[in-house]
Amino acid sequence: MNIYDISRTLHCKTPTWPGDTPFSYSLNWTKEETGSVNVGSIEMSVHTATHIDAPYHFDEKGAKVDQLDLSVFMGRAIVVDVSKLKELNRVSLEALLKGQEKKRVLFKTNAWEDEEVFPEGIPSLKLDAITLLKELSVPLIGVDLPSVDQLESKDLEVHHLLHETNIAILEGIDLRNVDEGEYQLVALPLKIEGADGSPVRAVLVRE
Hints:
The chain is α/β, with parallel strands linked by helices. The protein has helices spanning 31-34, 90-97, 127-135, 157-164; strands spanning 2-5, 24-29, 39-43, 51-53, 74-81, 104-108, 140-143, 168-171, 181-186, 197-199, 203-206. It contains 4 helices and 11 strands; from the N terminus they run E-E-H-E-E-E-H-E-H-E-H-E-E-E-E. The strands form 2 sheets. A 9-stranded mixed beta sheet has the order 1-11-9-5-6-7-8-4-10, covered by helices on one side. Strands 2-3 form a two-stranded antiparallel sheet. Helix 3 (127-135) links the parallel strand 6 (104-108) and strand 7 (140-143). The longest helix is centred in the middle third of the chain and has 9 residues, at 127-135.
């Protein structure tokens, strides 16, 4: 069994959305102080690095993290290299996704070049591509980007249409060392009551 870690590392230089809570880890008690253990704590936005968006993130009536169906975040997945495509639209994706019904689709764009710098611009799915994903009964999509929408978007059309078509959202994955092909995905969110998102440890598994 081969396991590929597609999670971004959380550390003091991990970039987050401008103005959002940066990641920090501190060792509050040391083994020397307690006589038995080290005890640390973290502070971060739930949308830092590799994470899932709950519908509540962009819809006041949407489900929160602790209400999500966990089966969506584990199962058959394909990695698709779209780094050379000019647009992520239906026409450009049809051939790549032919015969891939009911699989989670992870888009490898390679557009987030410096992992310690928040990108200034990113590609995003065109709305007609989401119609194709719906027809293929795709339960989840993942992107190696901070968002499925353009960074400056306020209406979040892609988020909303994916939600309307029952497609879950995984963002900030790292596919640089993963080849195209089929895998088993595991990207489970933490059980955070009332949360709009959650960090995940995302891995791909191949026998």
